[in-house]
Design brief:
The complex is a heterodimer of chains A (219) and B (218).
Chain A lengths: L9 E6 L12 H8 L3 E7 L16 E5 L5 E3 L8 H8 L3 E5 L14 H16 L4 E5 L14 H14 L4 E3 L20 H16 L2 H8 L1
Parallel strand pairs in A: 1-2, 1-5, 5-6, 6-7
Antiparallel strand pairs in A: 2-3, 3-4
Chain B lengths: L1 H8 L25 E7 L5 E5 L5 E4 L9 E3 L4 E8 L2 E8 L5 E6 L5 E6 L9 E7 L7 E5 L4 E7 L4 E6 L3 E8 L2 E11 L5 E7 L6 E6 L5
Parallel strand pairs in B: 1-7, 9-15
Antiparallel strand pairs in B: 1-4, 2-3, 2-5, 5-6, 7-8, 9-12, 10-11, 10-13, 13-14, 15-16
The chains are: A alpha/beta (219), B mainly beta (218).
Chain lengths: 219, 218
């Protein structure tokens, strides 16, 4: 499947800090998708988990970018937005969710699976209630340790959990895109510009091959 | 009213407190896992549950005997009072992180708490649990009606078992000590990603079943 499936599609991308800083996916992924002819709206909110997109919530930093415009990077005035309102405003063909690191509890001995299930299903049900197709992009490998105590075992567990719990959204497994530690990070979790470019290119390719994008393209 | 009851029960849910620096350091999850409680009326009369220290009430009529699962603070007692035409009984339950507790109101002011710590979350299959809340039903089981295919077996009083099944229409038959008990119960078409419970509870004609959707009250 070529990347042409993305041409003409309207994509609403929401996620965590990986979409909230200059040089992150709000530039790398967003630019890739725009190059393929997609109409893209990207929103990032630092630290936001899935359930935080059900209502407006203040976060410490964020980013917002529409089409070929420049990313607006925000600090303390950044917020999430209710997914229902975003979908009603943008009317996207596909919603792309990039959330995983904010829900993996890297610094806790136990993975809070009940909380994660509660949060993930709240968002997927809110999206599916609008009959909008969706794709969930899981967390990538980082470098063990760092500020967030990201570690390979928990990343794998988080990804496996998401793979079985995001339906009816399609799942994109970012762990297939690199090896642990392959993409350089600044803090164990957030990548350098080169890392985000590699991740963004891999997501673009994977998105074009998802059932959600193929169905939206064929419509 | 449900929201008021939830607020009364959830006295101190985990909070997240990010720090600031660079991309500000943010928490990657809660301090502890979520915990939930629900109430099931297994008597033959309507009941209400009222949270302690609150006027919030939740009705449990006999034709809709189960509440949804309500989020509560883990490791803190959840207290309330069950009231009915000829009933008034206090209940208290403490739920661990990751646990789902079901308070089952029984006849004669009795109640039973059955807890689960599920690990089977799956959006592509249905999850079905079987609780045995009737001491008269020994080694309770559940099987697909008319096909003699076992779904659960050997469930003791106060115990629970859960498993993933395909999201299809299911009719089940209760067994006690391996023998069929009562009429088959149609569960309808189970949906992928949804969670359900069949409860074996005491009844005037012997053990009977209740069926609950394990949905969360969000």
């Amino acid at each position: 499947m070529s990347l042409s499936a993305l041409a003409g599609l309207s994509l609403l991308i929401l996620g965590e800090s990986h979409l909230a800083a200059t040089g992150s996916l709000i530039e790398a992924l967003h630019d890739d998708l725009v190059k393929q002819g997609a109409q893209v709206h990207s929103i990032g909110a630092c630290g936001a988990g899935a359930q935080d997109w059900l209502a407006k919530k203040k976060v410490d930093c964020g980013g917002d970018r529409v089409g070929k415009g420049k990313a607006v990077i925000r600090g303390a005035d950044a917020t999430t937005f209710p997914i229902g309102e975003l979908i009603a405003a943008d009317k996207p063909d596909v919603v792309v969710v990039i959330i995983g690191d904010t829900m993996a509890a890297y610094d806790k001995s136990a993975f809070p699976k009940t909380w994660a299930w509660q949060s993930v299903t709240a968002l997927t049900r809110a999206i599916s209630a609008t009959r909008t197709r969706c794709v969930w992009v899981g967390p990538p490998w980082g470098k063990a340790g760092g500020r967030y105590n990201k570690n390979d075992e928990r990343v794998r567990l988080m990804s496996t959990f998401l793979a079985t719990n995001v339906a009816p959204c399609d799942y994109v497994d970012s762990l297939k895109f690199s090896k642990p530690g392959e993409w350089k990070t600044t803090d164990g979790q957030h990548f350098t510009v080169a890392g985000y470019k590699a991740w963004g290119a891999a997501i673009t390719q994977a998105l074009a091959n998802t059932p959600a994008v193929k169905e939206a393209h064929a419509k | 009213m449900k929201r008021a009851l939830i607020a009364a029960l959830a006295t101190s849910l985990p909070t997240l407190a990010p720090h600031a620096a660079g991309i500000p350091l943010y928490p990657t999850g809660p301090a502890e896992d979520s915990a939930f409680v629900r109430f099931v009326n297994a008597t033959d009369a309507a009941l209400e549950i009222q949270a302690a220290g609150s006027q919030a009430k939740l009705s449990l009529p006999t034709d809709k005997p189960s509440s949804g699962f309500m989020p509560v603070a883990a490791n803190k007692p959840v207290k309330g009072t069950l009231t009915g035409a000829d009933r008034r009984s206090d209940v208290a339950v403490t739920v661990k992180p990751g646990e789902f507790a079901t308070v089952i109101a029984l006849a004669k002011n009795a109640s039973l708490v059955i807890k689960e710590s599920p690990d089977d979350f799956n959006a592509m299959r249905a999850s079905l649990a079987f609780y045995n809340a009737d001491p008269a039903c020994r080694q309770a089981g559940l099987r697909a009606a008319g096909r003699n295919v076992g779904i659960f077996d050997g469930v003791g009083h106060g115990q629970a078992k859960r498993r993933l099944i395909n999201p299809v229409a299911v009719t089940v038959e209760l067994t006690c000590g391996g023998k069929p008990q009562g009429s088959p119960r149609e569960l309808g078409a189970l949906e992928a990603g949804q969670r359900y419970t069949v409860l074996a509870v005491p009844g005037p004609q012997g053990t009977r079943t209740l069926f609950a959707n394990d949905a969360l009250i969000r």
